[in-house]
Amino acid sequence: MKVTKSEIVISAVKPAQYPQEDMPEIALAGRSNVGKSSFINKMLNRKGLARISSKPGKTQTLNFYIINEMMHFVDVPGYGYAKVSKKEREAWGKMIETYFTSREQLKAVVLIVDLRHPPTADDVMMYDFLKHYEIPVIIVATKADKIPKGKWDKHLKVVKEKLEIEPGDRLVLFSSETGLGKDEAWSAIHYFTNT
Ligand code: GDP
């Protein structure tokens, strides 16, 4: 998709703050530092749009971006950051559970994992959670540029096996550095948003 306009609409913690517009929504989830902000910025052709509140230790909010006036990206705060307190982790869990289970406009979740390493226990938990609620998942394995091309297949296989990816779920090889996988990621998103 040619993104001509993208901007942040709101940082929300509860449903009353979610945007009212009835447009398709794609949420983006992944562990802290996996490359989620870089993925969003690459997809939207923006350098510093996603950044501010997704950093560990900052306020945990759902950041809604509006794209070409027709869909939302929802940046979910990263998980698995060791220094987050139990209380903060619980608040995070409650916030995302509410969003994922109640938001009717949500069409799919892009789950971002690091191609270099096997998915973490938190990644597996997130994938299982989405499957449990029957929310469509697009898995994006990013930082592909950090792995030699000849080893991509081997690493993708580890991602598939560790998450126990179900047949039919899309797995996209990606690099925010080179733009690899950008068209494929957009095509996977369009499939679910009908845009
Ligand atoms: P977030 O915490 O998930 O939002 O992660 P960021 O997008 O801030 O990325 C974390 C670090 O990984 C930064 O230093 C990025 O420059 C780097 N990074 C993210 N994506 C890629 C990628 O595709 N390739 C490479 N080489 N580095 C990346």
How would you describe what is shown here?
This protein is α/β, with parallel strands linked by helices. 32% of the residues lie in helices and 22% in strands. It is built from five helices and seven strands. The protein has a seven-stranded mixed sheet, sandwiched between helices. Helix 3 links the parallel strand 5 (106-114) and strand 6. The longest helix is centred in the middle third of the chain and has 17 residues, at 86-102. The chain is globular and about 50 Å long. The N and C termini lie close together (9 Å). The mean pLDDT is 93. Bound molecules: guanosine-5'-diphosphate. The site of guanosine-5'-diphosphate has 17 residues, from helix 1.
Indicate the topology.
Layout: E1 6-12, E2 25-30, H1 36-44, E3 62-67, E4 71-75, H2 86-102, E5 106-114, H3 121-132, E6 137-142, H4 152-163, E7 170-173, H5 182-193
The structure holds guanosine-5'-diphosphate.
Main beta sheet: 7 strands, mixed
- What coarse outline follows from CA principal-axis ratios? globular
Instruction: Tell me the strand percentage band.
Output: 15-25%
Q: What's the β-strand tally?
A: 7
Question: Could you give the distance between the termini?
Answer: 9 Å
Which descriptors would you attach to this protein?
single chain, 195 residues, seven-stranded mixed sheet, 5 helices, 7 strands
